[in-house]
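Bench log, entry 3. Co-assembly request; chain sequences pasted below exactly as received.
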Amino acid sequence: MSQISPSSTARSARNTSWLITAIMALGAIVFVLPIALIVITAFKPDAEIVNFRGVLPHAGTLQNFRDILGSPEEIPIAHWFGNSLLISTLVTLLVLTVDSLAAYGLARLNLPGKRWVFGLIVATLMVPGQILLVPVYLILNRLGWLDTPLALIVPAGAGAFGVFLLHQFFLNIPRDLEEAAALDGCSRLGIYFHVALPLSIPALATLGIFTFIGSWNDFLGPLVFLDSVDKYTLPVGIALFQTSYYAEYGLTLAASVLCTLPVLIAFLLFQKHIIQGIALTGLKD
Amino acid sequence: MTLMSPATRKVLKSYSGYLFVVPYLALFGLFLLFPLLYGLGLSFYKRELLSVVPAHFTGLNNYTEAMHDAYFWKSLFATLRFVAICAPLTVTLALTIAIGLSRVKGRMQTLLRAAYFAPTVLTVSVAGIVWRWFYNSEFGLFNAYLKHVGMKAPWLTNTGWALASIAIMTLWWTVGGPTVVLLAGVHNIPPQYHEAASLDGADGWLAIRHITLPLLRPVLLFVIVMNIIGSFQVFGQTFMITRGGPEMSTRSLVQYIYETAFNNYRMGYAAALSWLLFLIIAVFSAVQFRLMREK
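Structure output for the full assembly:
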């Protein structure tokens, strides 16, 4: 009995472990399936989408992609792609620059009253973005930035998340490193560039990918701040396009593939950073 | 240079450090702090962009109007229903997936975690388009399968169903975030706790109930509060999938604010509605923190 018992519990533990893995894998397939369906269905002719006869296409076609890329007057999807790329890239650069400077100052420099300033910044993390929509619209209107990329780029630099994230990271840089650099004649800006930034590349990468995907996927901002069709970003362009090509799922799904591909690739390449960043936001207190 | 005493120079130097912070603070001030207060001020004004009447102070008028506005109540009710369906489901499912994943070993765990998280990186218009196709009553995917067993569901066409259908889509789209946070929380529990419990014969459910859940409480509280705050702000999904229909049964408060401001250009009233939403969210979060702390 005493000889059998441990090995049988070990075996039953291994069995439950396999069972759990199998169940979790099944669930994971359910979660990925809709994404796979977007891609697969984009290669189906409309007749097959409307009259569903199984997941895989019977007569696969590139026609949807040809159609959507082939009529730039009606569907300026390359334009939308360019706008999205420009806006997301500039937002990411802006956020990384101003947030890392501010976080460095607040975490490492002896600034009078910095605890108050940091407290105020962090408190705004609780503010739901939507309540800023109307006043920011009026401010952008006054600045003459509505219907320009600036309306989506500059206000995006105001968010507190990045300052908070980098601040926590900079706090952990050892004092000795800074002092050594200062003895070598490094200025504060030099220490920021040559000590703080190189040591924080993981945090900067996390913030950068986060910001890029967030900006790429932003829907309400471009919906409200942009007017002209050729100024649209991909998410809003596709949404508008869906309303006018209501029943043509092949086209809208092909457009969806083009819109999703960049973020999906970014996610697959950097998933460790992205997931760590998300986890970090929940565990800091 | 000789005019400055060392003390003055030191003070100057410490303030000059703010040059690092100034670029961010300028943006923060202009596009966060100022609009926050500007919006509050605006909520006491009648300001209509299409009206010839200039903006003027009307005190609490916008707020009393909201109290008598049937559309406001209807959209608030739809929002509350959405929160009531979506938040508990999301947190429960996230917790289940997180605990399940924590039992999966090594690289497989990383792979599966990525799969559960993947829908989160889709933009709302893409997620909305797919699910609108799934739910379509004539040639949608779900009804194509249901047809085989002689059934047909009014996913988006019935006022009782539409909001729940959107909640299911939201569950799929957003559960990855809280799952990842909770999984990190589970990993943060020192392994000694489980080892000690397992020596006492507490495995499986017992260990989850008496070790994992109590130690996960702070993270769980964070996830619940964030999820409720997020659910209150529902807009993109309902806007993409149903436009708020049928019969406004899925028109959320944020969509009503959006339409008030950018279809009807009633900026003052929209600002007041925004602040009401903010207040409701703040009260809910405060109550939540209280309840969870006391327990």
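The domain at 76-283 of chain A is CATH 1.10.3720.10 (MetI-like fold). Chain A is about 75% helix and 0% strand.
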